[in-house]
Amino acid sequence: MKKLVILFLAISFSNTLSQESGKPGIFSTFNFEALGGINFTTLQYIGPSLIIEGKTNLSSNLNIKFSLGYSTTFKKDQTNVKTFSFISINNIDKYQTSAYTIEKIEYDIIPISVGIEYFFMRGKFSPYSFLEMGYNSYSIKIHTSGIHYNIAGSYNSFNELPADYKNKPPAISDAESYRIAIGIGTNYKLSSSISLDLRYSFQYNKSLVNTHRILVGISF
What we know:
eight-stranded antiparallel β-barrel, 65% strand, mainly beta, 9% helix, 1 helix
């Protein structure tokens, strides 16, 4: 409780000094943004990206922001897989050989992030840089091609399988993921309360794949 009182007094004191100097006080402005765009590793693998973002000021040129989003990211793979599966023929269980290629891995990601945003100048155009850190909640989908079943026959037992087909399908990691993004952008003022926002960022995604992201949206 004592810490909260001290924090409140510090913010109030900062706001008082800012008002006296003609500058906005800490947490004195609030903005919301809705942005959409693309998320990609290479131009061959492009997915959609959406963000809802809220921010408040720490100083006249520095904001703290919080965001929730959704992105689809693809990772090129091209792994050739030889494996087996269980089938039943006339109520008799068999080991069936199969082969296929993993073309790409699709990640559907919901990132939750906090960050800071620094404006180099304020005007009709307001360029800025930003840093974000957060957590990725995600699901995985594997895209395959060239699937061949019973390519090397079917067998009554595992030991009868050819050596190349005794492998289990490769496992895809589902480890926890966090993200760090760094980027640049600019706001273009459309009116006194609405701005157009264009930004680019590079994202490091632990356990997934690193991506580039380009977004455009409205700030109000």
